[in-house]
Design goal:
The complex is a heterodimer. Chain A is mostly helical. Chain A has helices at residues 2-28, 31-39, 42-63, 73-97, 107-131, 144-160, 167-174, 177-202, 209-234, 243-267. Chain A folds into two domains: 1-140, no CATH class; 142-268, no CATH class. Helix content of chain A is 78%, strand content 0%. Chain B has two domains: 3-44; 51-137, Immunoglobulins (Immunoglobulin-like), CATH 2.60.40. The chains are: A mainly alpha, B alpha+beta.
């Protein structure tokens, strides 16, 4: 019996490690992640770590393998810890092999870079364990609040891949406000297409356009912008910026974030 | 059938709780606010980047006199790779100069940079002049 239990644990860890790599490898190989890890505000890094742990926990609660076992918070805490361990281990191993971390790096820098890179890896690990699980994922409740959480999580996951890059700053710098307004329009249209697709899949017809647009597209878009703004603020991209520059960077990052938000309802 | 089921079970007529409407209204308000700020900027942001550099605090450190400078963009476009220069003169003769680069300065925004001098730039008798020697207009 203990053999099967340990092989179950090994399979779970392997799955988590694989998910961490699959999801976070592009970010491990992104220069800004090393620079931001070493240089970003420590208070902001700690806050980002805490929020990621909370997000992972809630993901485990809602989508995790144990989703159907009823309210067993402790099991989700354990799952979160496993995802965290796999994510941090994946980051440490890959960053050391890629010589991002060298013997010259100070302990403080090493910890910070591994912590930052470990965050997307943790989400990837948690995601892989729930999605690749043999029993598949289950749905737990389908309230509006859950839909909003799914949209926020989807926005985070999709935006995280480009949020740290300098390209966001560069693109926002090149765009004029008029172009930004056009991008807002495109993002709302794209989101609504996804939202409509979800409703179509569900077979709904009697729900008014206005209601669906307002409750899912508009609110989802605000969530996507909020997630984008939070990530950009964390990475210091708002320091010293006027309101216009803040909004333009947010709207640029909201392009992937809004698609992630809308698609999450379709996929998860 | 509970409220929760109803959002998924699409045969039932839509029912929206007052709380959901409040969230929806709040969302619409935020998007409208964002769009109006952007629209306002589309009208008011005009012309190329205009950079102004001012001297901030000076303090003595191991490497010399650490002089913080603030570069502000009051123009309508982003300035990329702005080269900030500072020169210390004594009776019209150049004593020392320093320079640094700021990667991006968007409109209505300011960035802080640091110039390091061996000479005290605020000592009596010397004059410190700061400025921008060039940037890429985006």
């Amino acid at each position: 019996m203990s053999d099967s239990a340990s092989s179950h644990l090994a399979r779970g860890l392997g799955r988590a490690f694989g998910g961490a790599l699959l999801f976070a490898l592009p970010l491990f190989m992104t220069m800004e992640m090393w620079q931001l890890g070493a240089g970003m505000g420590r208070g902001r890094l700690v806050l980002l770590c805490l929020l990621t742990v909370v997000l992972t926990y809630v993901l485990e609660r809602h989508l995790g393998l144990r989703g159907d076992e009823g309210a067993r918070p402790l099991a989700s805490v354990v799952d979160t810890a496993i995802a965290l361990a796999a994510g941090v281990a994946a980051a440490a191993v890959v960053l050391a092999l890629l010589a991002v971390l060298t013997p010259i790096s100070t302990m403080e820098e090493t910890v910070a870079v591994v912590a930052l890179c470990g965050l997307p890896a943790t989400i990837g690990a948690s995601f892989a364990r729930s999605q690749l699980g043999s029993q598949g994922h289950r749905r737990r409740g389908d309230g509006y609040r859950r839909e909003l959480f799914l949209m926020a999580a989807g926005a985070t996951v999709f935006a995280a891949n480009v949020a740290p890059t300098e390209e966001i700053v560069l693109l926002a710098g090149r765009m004029e406000p008029v172009r930004t307004l056009g991008l807002v329009g495109l993002e709302l249209v794209l989101m609504h297409v996804f939202v409509y697709a979800v409703d179509f899949k569900g077979g709904s017809s009697g729900r008014g356009f206005g209601r669906v647009f307002l409750l899912y597209t508009v609110v989802g878009y605000v969530l996507a912008c909020a997630v984008s703004a939070y990530l950009l603020w964390s990475f210091g991209r708002f320091d010293g910026m006027g309101l216009g520059a803040v909004l333009m960077k947010t709207v640029v990052l909201a392009l992937p974030a809004s698609i992630g938000a809308a698609a999450a309802r379709l996929i998860l | 059938m509970t409220d929760d089921d109803r959002t998924r079970d699409d045969q039932s007529p839509p029912s929206t709780s007052p709380g959901e409407w409040v969230i929806g209204a709040l969302g619409a308000l935020l998007v409208a606010a964002m769009v109006s700020v952007l629209a306002h900027q589309a009208v008011t942001w005009d012309g190329p980047a205009r950079l102004e550099v001012t001297v901030g605090e000076v303090h003595e450190a191991e490497g010399g006199y650490v002089t913080s400078v603030v570069v502000e963009n009051t123009g309508g476009r982003t300035a990329e790779s702005a080269r900030i220069t500072g020169a210390i003169t004594h009776d019209g003769t150049l004593v020392e100069s320093a320079a640094t680069t700021v990667s991006y300065v968007p409109p209505d925004s300011r960035r802080e940079a640091v110039l390091v001098f061996a000479t005290d730039p605020v000592r009596t008798g010397v004059a410190l002049a700061v400025g921008v020697s060039g940037y890429t207009s985006m």
